[in-house]
Amino acid sequence: MAEPHSLERPRFFPGKPVTTDDLALEQTYFLEKLRRHNRTLHGFGLVSGLKVTTDSGRIAVDAGIALDCQGNEIVIGKLQMLSPPENGESWRTAYVNMRYVEGSCDAGSVSGNTEVATIREGFEIVIGLENCNRGHRHSRARWLTCGEPHALTIAKLRHHLQGWRVDRSYRPPTIK
User: Fold this and answer.
1) What is the SS3 assignment for 63-132?
2) What is the residue extent of each domain of the chain?
3) pTM confidence score
4) Tell me: the pLDDT tens digits for 79-111?
């Protein structure tokens, strides 16, 4: 995938005043450089962990790490328990999708203006009808990214008389 633009970073030197714009540009530079590295060298998919199982009518996602199509790292630090879709009678197939999210942790106030002071990287896991990996290509043992923000499908579920089960024939994209 060709990258659409080159990256810019600030150059600091003695006597140069440092502004918030300079610091924001430097953060953006390193974030985009890491994301570009992940997209172009690794592709997208599961890096480790994130095994999906069903237990006592609930869906479990193990701790692990993955890369999304934008190159974001999605880190789940501990086992996540999910409730199955309530409309299981109408759904026969469902997908476990996870996405990278950012949220503010706290705010600071300067001159009466309240601003976000800390950003926390996180994740969201949703069970839905869509396989978000559909349409992505696989080349030379690597899943190619589209660069667009969307969830990563990590498992396929099938509804049976006994409830939801993980479809073991579904293979999520993995990074090797």
Assistant:
1) CEEEECCCCCEEEECCCEEECCCCCCCCCCEEEEEEEEEEEEEEEEEECCEEEEEEEEEEEEEEEECCCC
2) 42-166
3) 0.85
4) 999 998 876 557 889 999 999 999 887 766 666
